[in-house]
């Protein structure tokens, strides 16, 4: 089979083998600028827009992808070499693969190379939406106070050097300033990260920065910027070398960075698009008045579920989520956690069948073709914990309800943070706070609750006597009997 490098000129040949964009990409304009063109964005928003662009009346809704950090150089280079094209490989539960070339990213910029071009692009009057996947840790929140962290050296640097920003806050501020100066019109800033009230949080954090760095912009923003909340969902593991070689061998496509994902997809958004939006409902996006209950459900069940399976699985010595969830001790523990500690805090989900949602979730985690890496799931747990698990804990504590599973998970995380699993193999910990976590984890070997003193992660949790007691008990038990034995005992109660 002839092999083709994926780019605009090979699309015609490739169309005989996989589905490719059937619209004229040259006519597509970037009505959306998206920051963070990792796997998730390319499996989700860019995929929805690709579908929409097949109707010519939507040609104003292409995407300009921004690679914001130095770390993103590789994805930028790939997009550039491949004219923004990439293959999305959807892996069904039965192993069927559906391959489709996505064409909605029609422009791409590498911010560290040319900050000015990024600001000018975002301030272009044709751009109506700036969407973000900058990860849970990207919002610069001090978890101890819930406020914007003005002490972050990069934030200070951006405020002193506004024309050459490095953070998303610096970029957005310059963009809004330019939009105001050039009367470029209103704009929607749409967060697509896993944070409760992600739009509200984006607004709060951005305004805190602007109050500090450019206060004269605040009035304009009030009238001209909207921040809808949204819930996004699609499991997208990191692309593996075998995904790249399979695509080449089976379909003859040489794609440096295809994206693989599950078939499940969901996007629920509040309809607050001040400068207009594409007709996303025609491709299955749900618009609701209040996204909060959906977001709480997804974060509390799915994302927290991932962290539970990831942390416990990692300690036992598994390397993928499907392996870990196929262990009955872990699966039963997860089901009990979701039923007894998370489900009671979920409300206002009219029309949602939570039992079916949870059953589906177990099936999604069990997809043996996805092979979602525990390393991916456990990366940046210090930023995920306050968004995925702690809100549930605080709510349960407030009403004196069960926290036995949550305290067990956090105790397991303290042991995980020492860097070894129960087979004495090193764990590859990727976390901005890895060193601090390690220090606390060391002290926790003698005084377990020292781990909870990390206020930037746990906020006021260490003030709860009830939690401290449950946590210490769980910690001692895990160190004495090992994770599996403890799970089996808890599951049988
Ligand atoms: C995962 C998410 O990062 C994580 O810990 O839970 O990336 C998850 O796969 C997505 O939110 C699925 O929508």
Automatic annotation (TrEMBL):
Residues of the Mannitol dehydrogenase C-terminal domain: 290-478
Family as reported in the entry's similarity comment: Belongs to the mannitol dehydrogenase family. UxuB subfamily.
SUPFAM superfamilies listed in its UniProt record: 6-phosphogluconate dehydrogenase C-terminal domain-like (SSF48179), NAD(P)-binding Rossmann-fold domains (SSF51735)
Domain Mannitol dehydrogenase N-terminal: 31-281
Hydrolase as UniProt keyword: no
Cross-referenced InterPro entries: 6-PGluconate_DH-like_C_sf (IPR008927), 6PGD_dom2 (IPR013328), Mannitol_DH (IPR000669), Mannitol_DH/Oxidoreductase (IPR050988), Mannitol_DH_C (IPR013118), Mannitol_DH_CS (IPR023027), Mannitol_DH_N (IPR013131), NAD(P)-bd_dom_sf (IPR036291)
One Pfam family hit: Mannitol_dh_C
Organism encoding this protein: Frigoriflavimonas asaccharolytica
Gene Ontology molecular-function annotations: mannitol 2-dehydrogenase activity
Record key words, sorted: NAD, Oxidoreductase
A Gene Ontology BP annotation from the UniProt entry: mannitol metabolic process
The protein, known as: Mannitol 2-dehydrogenase
EC number: 1.1.1.67
């Amino acid at each position: 089979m002839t092999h083709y490098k994926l780019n605009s000129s090979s699309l015609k040949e490739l169309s005989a083998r996989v589905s490719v964009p059937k619209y004229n990409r040259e006519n597509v304009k970037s009505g959306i600028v998206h920051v963070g063109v990792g796997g998730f964005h390319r499996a989700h928003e860019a995929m929805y827009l690709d579908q929409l662009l097949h109707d010519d009346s939507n040609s104003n809704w292409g995407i300009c992808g921004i690679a914001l950090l130095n770390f993103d150089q590789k994805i930028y280079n790939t997009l550039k070499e491949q004219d923004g094209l990439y293959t999305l490989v959807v892996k069904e539960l039965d192993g069927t693969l559906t391959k489709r070339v996505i064409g909605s990213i029609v422009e791409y910029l590498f911010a560290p190379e040319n900050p000015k071009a990024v600001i000018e692009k975002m301030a272009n009057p044709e751009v109506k939406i700036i969407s973000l996947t900058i990860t849970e840790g990207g919002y610069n929140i001090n978890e101890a106070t819930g406020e914007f962290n003005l002490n972050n050296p990069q934030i200070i640097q951006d405020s002193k050097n506004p024309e050459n920003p490095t953070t998303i806050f610096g970029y957005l501020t310059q963009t809004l300033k330019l939009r105001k100066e050039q009367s470029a019109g209103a704009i929607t800033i749409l967060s697509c990260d896993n944070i409760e009230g992600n739009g509200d949080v984006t607004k709060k954090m951005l305004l805190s920065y602007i109050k500090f760095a450019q206060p004269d912009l605040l009035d304009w923003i009030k009238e001209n910027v909207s921040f809808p909340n949204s819930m996004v969902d699609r499991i997208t593991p990191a692309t593996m070398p075998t995904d790249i070689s399979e695509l080449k061998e089976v379909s003859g496509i040489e794609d440096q960075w295809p994206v693989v994902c599950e078939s499940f997809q969901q996007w629920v958004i509040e309809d607050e698009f001040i400068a207009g939006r594409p007709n996303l409902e025609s491709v299955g996006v749900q618009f609701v008045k209040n996204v909060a209950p959906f977001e709480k459900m997804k974060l509390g069940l799915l994302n927290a579920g991932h962290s539970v399976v990831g942390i416990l699985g990692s300690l036992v010595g598994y390397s993928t989520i499907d392996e870990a969830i196929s262990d009955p001790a872990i699966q039963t523990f997860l089901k009990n956690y979701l039923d007894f500690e998370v489900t009671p805090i979920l409300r206002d989900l009219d029309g949602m069948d939570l039992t079916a949602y949870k059953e589906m979730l177990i099936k999604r985690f069990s997809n043996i073709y996805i092979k979602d890496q525990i390393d991916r799931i456990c990366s940046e747990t210090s930023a995920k914990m306050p968004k995925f698990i702690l809100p549930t804990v605080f709510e349960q504590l407030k009403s004196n309800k069960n926290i036995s599973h949550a305290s067990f998970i956090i105790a397991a995380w303290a042991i995980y943070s020492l860097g070894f699993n129960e087979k004495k193999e090193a764990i590859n910990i990727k976390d901005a706070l890895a060193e601090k976590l390690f220090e606390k984890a060391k002290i926790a070997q003698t005084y377990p609750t020292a781990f909870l003193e990390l206020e930037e992660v746990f906020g006021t949790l260490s003030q709860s006597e009830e939690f401290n007691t449950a946590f210490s008990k769980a910690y001692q038990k895990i160190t004495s009997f090992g994770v599996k034995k403890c799970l089996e005992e808890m599951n049988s109660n």
